[in-house]
Amino acid sequence: MNEAQIDLAHTVALGLIDDEDHHAIQTIIDTEDPTLCTQFLREVRETREALAHLASATPLPPPPSLRARLLAALAAEDPPVVS
Predict the structure, then answer these.
(1) Where's the Anti-sigma-K factor RskA N-terminal domain (predicted)?
(2) Buried/exposed code over 36-57 (b: 16+ C-beta within 10 A; e: otherwise)
(3) Residue partners of 36: CB distance under 8 A and separation at least 6
(4) How far, in Å, are 46, 68, 74, 79, 82 from residue 71 at the CA level?
(5) pLDDT (tens digit, 9 = 90+) per residue, 15-51?
């Protein structure tokens, strides 16, 4: 699979396909290369599994010092210049 096909598989896994993507997906699935179709469907499945795993992970609270460090970093930055 090439980079564009991998990106397309990720788009499918995220449920973000549009008409153009739908056509590209159909082209891959209807291909005469069964290996390409198998690789594509495996990439979609593995991406969905990874997303499900991430969604089920228990978030950890940030360390208490993070807020102070972020505020100090923001205060140290020069304010943006408005033109």
Answers:
(1) 6-52
(2) beebbeebbeebbeeeeeeeee
(3) 1, 5, 28
(4) 39, 5, 5, 14, 22
(5) 999 988 999 999 998 988 999 999 999 999 999 999 9
Of 50, 49, 37, 34, nearest in space to 5 by CA: 37
Q: Domain count for the chain, please give it.
A: 1
| Closest to 29 measured CA to CA, from 37, 21, 19 | 37
| C-alpha to C-alpha distance for 55 and 52, rounded to whole angstroms | 5
Distance CA 15, CA 38 (A): 19
42 in any annotated domain: yes
Domain for residue 65, yes or no?
no
